[in-house]
DNA sequence: GACCAGGCGTCTT
DNA sequence: AAGACGCATGGT
């Protein structure tokens, strides 16, 4: 991989697909947003700005000694053409890839993924983002320019449930507290989970209140690098079963489940389009 | 003002 | 094992 670092700017000559809007606004992460010139987000306590132009990936805010971490975060150290070829062996995933060919699965930090996807349950993306933002502002370390790191497990675990009321997360507050306390005291340890087979890791994750199969799969995929757990596959089946309990109509063949839901969310975030516009995208 | 949102826990059958 | 329901909050 071809990259250079100079004056705080990391430049990478992109190989293979990478679309920052599809990747950062699709709902796999909740702390990235658009700026006039590109995208801004906070990752691992670093305020980052990203622009992609003409196949050149340009990132500011990453210290030089953390370049390998951030290359991996953005999955730029992976052969995505090969990954997509593998995904396309499944017909449904091929449809996902076709609908959102520029998505890369980010390699995010475990605790942030865990709490973010607990927050996500029975919730919508704008509000998820709001709750995550309040969580960071309220309990994360300030990193300058009015921005905050994602809080540590200890910072969350030290709160009472009442003290988390400012999140306005509703009944999820207790779940967040249980999760944070488990991570803080070592009952839930990403290093230990990494050594377990995926099914065993999932079972451990689901011991915490508010972590069911969906949240666990998202944590495995987004926070523990278990690419064989692919919500783009598993959850699509359920979404389709819900939407089409009596079998899929022909028009739904274009409906590529989660990947198109990614598109749906990206479209909404981009252009504030109406539900009807999104329906046109998904064919529903 | 309804309806619903990338679930989950709990209580029924 | 599978279905029904409530859950707190706010976006649309």
If you had to describe this structure to a student in words, what would you say it looks like?
The chain is of the alpha+beta class and 284 residues long. It has 3 domains: 2-78, 2-Layer Sandwich (TATA-Binding Protein), CATH 3.30.310.260; 79-97 and 225-284, no CATH class; 110-211, Orthogonal Bundle (Endonuclease III, domain 1), CATH 1.10.340. The protein has helices at residues 20-24, 67-73, 80-87, 91-99, 110-119, 125-139, 153-157, 172-184, 190-194, 198-205, 213-223, 231-243, 257-271, 275-282; strands at residues 3-6, 9-13, 32-34, 39-43, 46-53, 56-60, 142-144, 147-148. The strands form 2 sheets. A 6-stranded antiparallel sheet has the order 1-2-6-5-4-3. Strands 7-8 form a two-stranded antiparallel sheet. Helix 10 packs across helix 11. The protein is globular. It starts with a strand and ends with a helix. The chain binds a DNA duplex (13 and 12 nucleotides) through residues 27, 117-118, 120-128, 130-131, 168-173, 175, 209-215, 218, 231, 235, 239, 258, 261, 265, 274-275.
Chart the SSEs and their pairings.
Elements lengths: L2 E4 L2 E5 L6 H5 L7 E3 L4 E5 L2 E8 L2 E5 L6 H7 L6 H8 L3 H9 L10 H10 L5 H15 L2 E3 L2 E2 L4 H5 L14 H13 L5 H5 L3 H8 L7 H11 L7 H13 L13 H15 L3 H8 L2
Antiparallel strand pairs: 1-2, 2-6, 3-4, 4-5, 5-6, 7-8
The structure holds a DNA duplex (13 and 12 nucleotides).
